Amino acid sequence: MTMQNTPLLMSRILGRGAELDPGVEVVTAQANGTHRQTLKQTWERAQQLANALKAQGIDTGDRVASFMWNNYRHLELYQGVPSMGCVLHTLNIRLSPADLEYIINHAGDRIIFADEDLLPLLEPLWGKIPCVELLVICRHGEGGESSFENQIDYEDFIAGHEPAFDWPDIPETAPMGLCYTSGTTGNPKGVMYTNRSTYLHTLTESLTDSMGLSALDSLLGIVPMFHAMGWGLPFAASMLGTKQVYPHRFMTPDSFLSLMEQEEVTISAGVPTIWQGVRAALTANPDKYDLSSLNRLTCGGSAPPVEMMRWYWNSFEIEMIQGWGMT
Q: Is the pTM of this model over 0.85?
């Protein structure tokens, strides 16, 4: 055996930022202001989550589903579920009830974590997804109820559990994430991510000629966490100690721009339609927002218009980085 033959496991890098930069913030937009917690608190809560899941009987290889916006609790799932050797299945909130029913049953999800405002979208599924044993509701003070028989509040679910977890040694080829395609013929197709592939992808996002993400950045994560694992940005930011800013359900250009100004965002990522909308808002009110901290945008999902890329540079000296990748 060669020296330094170490499995590439997500559990070995996701807590790095919390260890080196414990005070860096994770900020989530809320109906009244923002929710703020540190990377250290996030990593500890992720370990509480892992202990809660273990107490529920969730074990290595089991699928845990999320039906959520981009927010701090979703980040805790991103950290805790893969690290404990389980598979995080990020459900696309925009799929039809029929597609959701199919992929939940196909994946064999045992638990669903759902933001409370999205609960009505799950109502048609109850009684049709027998694999689901528990619904964990993530409340943000916005209301929302479910008729599912076995349910619990997220904070109650993790309460009382230790903020430390002995992460298991598993093969680096073990699955850690699961996404299903949309816009294909027939039923959605599942795509499984391994620890090794995601570990390597996480490293590449800090490369200078890639996104160049670093601990000096403030990242606004717009690309949905249910879209190709949020392009891996929650993993990379957690590893690097990057400040993370999430819009939750407030997916409007003005919300993005307000967060960019308030949180001194340096980099963000989204599809072309997002940046076209932001451009329109800036054109309508060119002096409304201070974007002096923002220096680069990553654009993917489809080819960004060259004219739009030039507009951002000519208007604000913001570099637009075109991304490409498979699901």
A: yes
